[in-house]
Automatic annotation (TrEMBL):
It holds the Pfam family HSP70. The lineage of its organism: Eukaryota, Metazoa, Spiralia, Lophotrochozoa, Mollusca. This is Molecular chaperone DnaK. Belongs to the heat shock protein 70 family. Signal peptide: none annotated. Keywords: ATP-binding, Coiled coil, Nucleotide-binding. It comes from Potamilus streckersoni.
Amino acid sequence: MGKVIGGADDWSGGKTTGSTNPERTIAAVKRLIGRAYNSTDVQKDIANLSYKVVSGPGDQAYVRVNDKDYSPSEISAFILQKMKQTAEDYLGEEVTEAVITVPAYFNDSQRQATKDAGKIAGLDVLRIINEPTAAALAYGLDKKKEELIAVFDLGGGTFDISILEIGDGVFEVKSTNGDTHLGGEDFDIRIIDYLAEEFKKENGIDLRKDKMALQRLKEAAEKAKHELSSSTETDINLPFITADASGPKHLNMKLSRSKFEQLADDLVQRCLEPCKKALKDADVTINDIHDVILVGGMTRMPKIQKIVEQFFGKSPHKGVNPDEVVSVGAAIQGGVLKGDVKDVLLLDVTPAVSGN
C-alpha cells in the first residue's frame, strides 16, 4: 500500500493514487529502510522509483516529499499506524504492543530502523522476528514428531530461505540465507523495461523518463505479473500514455507467460544459490527436508513453484496461504509472549550479514 504524503493526510490506496500523484506516493520503502544512500542497491533502486530519494543524516536513504525529508522508518510508521487503527477498529479496544516480522537476512541497522518505525507509530515492539520463522510457527504449531522444513520466502522486495527443525512445540532455525534485494519489484521492473523498450522502438519515446507514465507502467506490470500466474497470456492496454506533435499515443501489447519467464529467468535462478548455502550451513541434504513452505506473493508464479519442486525434489506444501502465513506466525509469537500460547520454544538465529 502507498500513502500520499503532503496535502490531505488521509490514507488512500497507493495503487490508485500512484498514477495521479507519483512523486507523493511512496511504495517499496522496505528496500530503503536501514540502508545507506550511497549503497549500490539503493542507487540501483532510485532509477525505478517515482518519488525522490535523498541522502539523510549519517548518509541514510531518506524520502523527499514536498521539500520535506522523511526517514524510511517514518514512512513505515504511517503503515503501522494504519495497521494499528485497523486492528483497533476490529477489536474495539486500544492496541499498544506489536510483534513485527522482518526478512531473515535483514542486518542490525535494518532491524533497528524497523523497531524505530514501531515506536514512531506509538507501538511497544515486543519482538522483531524473522519472517520464515513466523511462517514455520504458523505451519508447525500442531506438529508432534520432529521434522526438517525449508521455508522459501520470496516477497515484494526480499528473498529468504531458512531451514528449521520443528516438533513438539520447539522451532529451531538451523540456517538462513537470502538476498535482501531480490523480490517482486525486480520482476515488475523486467516487464516495465520490456514494455518501455518495445514502445520506444515503435514511437521513439522513452516512457520511463515521464514519472506519470512510469507509474502507469508499474501498475500495469504488476497487474500483468499477477494475471500470468493463472493465465498464459495477458493484454496490457494503456490509452493516452503519452503524446507528441502528432497527437496522443497508446500502449497496447500482449505479454505471454513464456516471454515473462524468459525476461525474468536470471532472477528465478538467483533463488537457487542461497538455497544451496542454507542446506550446507545446516549440514543437511535435500533428502532430509520433509516439507517446503512457500511464503510471499511471488511464490504464486508457476516458474518459481517449478524450480522449488525441481531443486528440493518434492512439491511445495499447499496448506498455507503465502500472503497470510507470516502474519499468523507473528500473532502466535504475540500469544507466546503474553502467555496465551503455551509450550512453544523458538530458537532463532540472526544471520551474520554485513553491509548496508
